[in-house]
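MOLECULE: protein
FOLLOWS: sequence and fold
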Amino acid sequence: MEAHAATVEHAHGPPEAHQSSRIDRQTLGILLFIVSEVMLFGAFFASYFFLRVVANVGPWPPEGFDLPTAVAGVNTAILISSSFTVHYALVSIQRGNRRGLIAGLGATWLLGFTFLFIQFNEYVHIGFSARNGAFGTIFYGLTGLHGAHVTVGLILLAMANIRAWRGHFTSEPKKHLGVEVPGIYWHFVDVMWIIVFTTVYIL
């Protein structure tokens, strides 16, 4: 009788998820973090379009603000390339190719650092600062916010590079999350830059 009651009680509850169908905590954590960061970027984009459309401040960018679109375009190509290299790193370790992993992670870090260096060099030579009107403020706000995310991504990639050289990753399931999770974040950084570049430099 007691066994029957326990069976009935168990039947009323939801079936326990199979282990393979569960998302691991690290991946879930980075995805939730990305959702919060999308909302943060959304607030900055809302401010940008308010200044440009609703406030109707005149020509955009205002006179005196010349953006180096060609340089930013090359920088965009560099960052997009880094998405392919980090994907190559992940695919390599999934196939047990440790050399491909190291090469992919190293190339991704170098491309990301190059992007950040060019962005900083642009700030030095662009000819205006965040104090020069609403456009200067929102320009540095958006590009600076993205630059901060690139910096975080480079730190994560540096850690992944160190672990790769030490042989911490294997092709076994969940034995290469240290590559996959930074890769997800890096793809997010790349996508956000494409949106920033298109919004600020092109439109």
Observations:
- Residues 1-11, 15-21 have pLDDT under 50 and may be disordered.
- The chain has one domain: 29-56+63-202.
- The domain at 29-56+63-202 is CATH 1.20.120.80 (Four Helix Bundle (Hemerythrin (Met), subunit A)).
- Helices lie at 2-12, 25-54, 69-94, 98-125, 133-165, 177-202.
